[in-house]
Amino acid sequence: MQQEISKASFQMQCQRKHFIKDKQYHLLIDDDRIKISETVDFQYSKYLLDLNFESLIYWKADQDQLVAFGVMYNKTLKWFHADSFDLQHLYKYLCGRVFFGNISSIYENKEMLGSGASSKVYRVVNKLTHSLYASKCIRKDYIYKREDKERYNRMIQEIELMRKLDHETLVKMIDIFEGEKSFYIILELLQGESLHTFFKKHSLTLTQIRQIISRCLQALCYLDLNNIIHRDLKLENVVLKEQGKVESVKIIDFGLAIYTSNNQRQLCGTPGYIAPEMFIEKYPYTTKVDIFSLGAIFYKLLCKKPLFHGNTSEEILENNKKFLWNNHLKNCSDETIDLIKQMLQRDPNKRISAYQALQHPFFGERFIEQGIAEESPHEIVKTFPLIKPMQIINSNDNIPEIKIQAIRGGQQSFDQSLGSNYFPSFDEGYQKPKNGSDHIIE
């Protein structure tokens, strides 16, 4: 039977089926390598497989149970049979650490949920558990089109990041597969629509808006604790887990997400949601950029108008950069205006954090706790809408005639880097909130 001999290793018994007599083997996963040996000491292991995304593991199932796994050896697929309980543990141990092959052995396609230029999303059912999921199918010809492997590396980065996420407010990645023509990312199934689509059909109450922003702030608290920047928060990337229930929203699409330790500080995201500091070349922005993006979502839900106006993505981006925002907050309460101003502070050092925002009077005492879940339910994500706002990946290549003042030499303050008059005042036309908060945009 299977046994774990340490947190970093895994061990079980298996056998190769032969015509005359089956041959017994021992499997050990240790030091990021799979070793399969006839002897228990593993001094000589006939089959060796590195535990990385260049490796493929195949599966056989029969009557709702796993019966064998397969590895390539000398260009031949070798099958190893084992106890179903052990195979389930092996499957779970390898999830997200290697690509699995032959997706049809585990998942059955039910219907297409949506499609884009490079991928399609299908509703699928797991043949072993009969649970529904979503399969994001990414074409290999798109991934490998660039010789620098930038798209492949970005996909791998998304996978490595998502496999570590486990929070009730974030979509959960379940499995990853590689086929002959596509990569497949199996995701939790979200039964509702995107907040972008839902908001077009329904008028939201302040209570519903409070629930949405609270859930998103809980997600940002979790990401902040794990040093992750989403970098593309917008209405399209917030999806209802249950149809019609805004209190069940989850954040999706980690295609642009990075760790805070990542030195790449390029301008990216969607026009209208980009934080001011991201427009400064090489500025070391932090998780606070997601707070600004959520503030733009908050503004849109409150005012039914975008924070930055424009007839094209380019116009929106230009107004986003110059902070030429729309002025529609006059009918909101003092607490509401105060919170949104703190989220939209132009200086990230003065901008409120996710944890601080959850303690704001706008939410009341019941929203102070972060509420991080111990585990997420295993079910999926409806795909992004068929029409997505333009995403900016490389500012210098995609934004004509935008002059970005870079920080050079020693670290300057945010105000010094842009100039004190770079942005118009957020308070034009408003009175300061009566609660006397000094956390307002100057």
Automatic annotation (TrEMBL):
UniProt protein name: Protein kinase domain-containing protein
UniProt KW keywords: ATP-binding, Kinase, Nucleotide-binding, Serine/threonine-protein kinase, Transferase
Annotated PROSITE patterns: PROTEIN_KINASE_ATP, PROTEIN_KINASE_DOM, PROTEIN_KINASE_ST
Protein kinase domain boundaries: 107-363
Similarity comment: family membership: Belongs to the protein kinase superfamily.
GO cellular component assignments: nucleus
Provenance organism: Paramecium octaurelia
Positions that bind ATP: 140
Single Gene Ontology MF annotation: ATP binding
Highest taxon above the source species: Eukaryota
